[in-house]
Design a protein that fits this description.
Helix content: 40-55%
Oligomer: single chain
Distance between the termini: 20 Å
Structural class: mainly alpha
Number of domains: 1
Strand content: under 5%
Length: 133
């Protein structure tokens, strides 16, 4: 597997979706954004044996006003998880738990009624969505 640091815009889109889905409070957006970014960098550091200081990371918080489709958010979460799962504590992380909650919300609320990951990832809507922004 490979891993890369996702963009601030990517993190912002996920955090905006978490707040829109009422999984997190709007006041928690900034600390959650930082948590997600740190988890992603922790994965990249682990994968490539890098020593990037996670606490020194500068994050540019700008919540998206443009609403993304649930299919696009689902794919962005999938990308984030793929880039962030390289380290041994990913499975127990708050970031993974938030991703799981958002994915569950999307599967329960998409208008096409796709109820499982297997169906969602083969849908035309998912296919058209961006992997990363």
């Amino acid at each position: 597997m490979s891993a890369y640091q996702v963009s601030d815009e990517h993190i912002n889109a996920i955090v905006t979706a978490l707040a829109t889905a009422n999984i997190i409070e709007k006041d928690d957006r900034e600390p959650i954004a930082r948590l997600l970014l740190k988890e992603n960098i922790k994965s990249v550091n682990y994968r490539y044996n890098m020593g990037k200081n996670i606490d020194a990371i500068v994050f540019h918080l700008k919540f998206k006003s443009k609403k993304l489709s649930l299919y696009n958010v689902y794919k962005l979460v999938g990308c984030y998880e793929y880039q962030s799962c390289e380290h041994p504590t990913w499975e127990q992380s708050k970031a993974k738990s938030l991703c799981d909650s958002l994915n569950e919300y999307i599967l329960a609320n998409n208008k096409k009624g796709y109820k499982t990951n297997d169906i969602m990832v083969y849908s035309p809507e998912y296919d058209k969505a961006k992997w990363s922004i």
